[in-house]
Amino acid sequence: MEDRFKERVSAAALGRIFGYEPLYVSGLVSRLGSASAVFDLSPKEADAVLGPYSKYRGKICRAALDAASAELEALSARGFRYIACTEEDFPALLRDCPDCPAGLYYSSRSEPGEIFSGRPAVAVVGTRDISPYGREWTRKIVETCAQAPSRPCIVSGLAYGVDITAHLTALDCGLPTIAVLPCGIDSIYPAAHRKAAERIREAPASAVVTDYPPGTSPVAFTFVRRNRIIAGLAACTVLVESKANGGGLITCRLADSYGREVFALPGRVDDIRSAGCNALIRSGCAQAVCGLEGLGEQLGLGKFDIRRKAGFAESVAAFYGARLDTLGLDSFTRIAALIAENRGIELEELCYRSGEPYNEVARIAMQLETDGFICIDLMQRCTINARK
Fold it and tell me: What is the rounded distance in angstroms from the CA atom of residue 158 to the CA atom of residue 166?
């Protein structure tokens, strides 16, 4: 068996055997120098390393290697690949973590060196129950990263809310992105994000990855363990929104335990989606994201001046300028400015603040929604469309 393939097979076998206790893998590989060396131990040597009564003693065997070899060959035929933690192109930051996995299964059109070694990585995580505020700031943070001298890879978990917003914004900005799954590489969770996962696979230097063997189903425990991969891949982690016990907090605390920088977006004190962020900042575990100016430098991406987009009201004025008379344009820009200043404002409140009659406010708001500038929910609350 060719040495590189033998090492990958050995690592995949160790992942099957010790996957839920990765500290065993790290200890064995560190002590013996390679994954394949574990399977080269004589029975006496294995007893010395694992202990004669270890529950794992009988699992370090030829059958485990044969099963892993068949697994990797079957995956390769389907376009999936595997990289062992001992290989040169394995992500160095993840290898430094004490609970580093034996290896990573991944799906990508790019080579591992381009995916894992070519640039800095920033993890962007948060709640699935994202608010318009969270969606807007997720996009702003990733767009700011895209302007940096050192353009990073954006790492997240492909989940609803903050995760998928971060991935898609990265792709829109031409940044590579890595999606870390809570299941085997042969499935996508959530299934609704299959198309997004395919976009990630096809994008240069981007990948879908997991340390779980094929056939692993997503359950509560796999999400928690998945978060260590997200934290381990990135030099810093940004928490956009999180409830008091959100999964993003676990990722941030893991990142902090690895000695990585952690940042959090503060929110209203009475907003449950910001409770986790505010608590993380208060505890001193995370630095507050107080604006975009200087954020790139904080994230270790270099110093640069942000190229600012036109303000929301200015964009509305530019779009309708040739279509409306002066009075009509003034009404549109005034309504737009109020929505920008009061995210989630209701139509009735817009009437009060603008001095316009309800039917006129409703007409303008519906036109702004039709043209993609705002979204109006069932409670008649108006929020800016983040893509504008």
Answer: 9
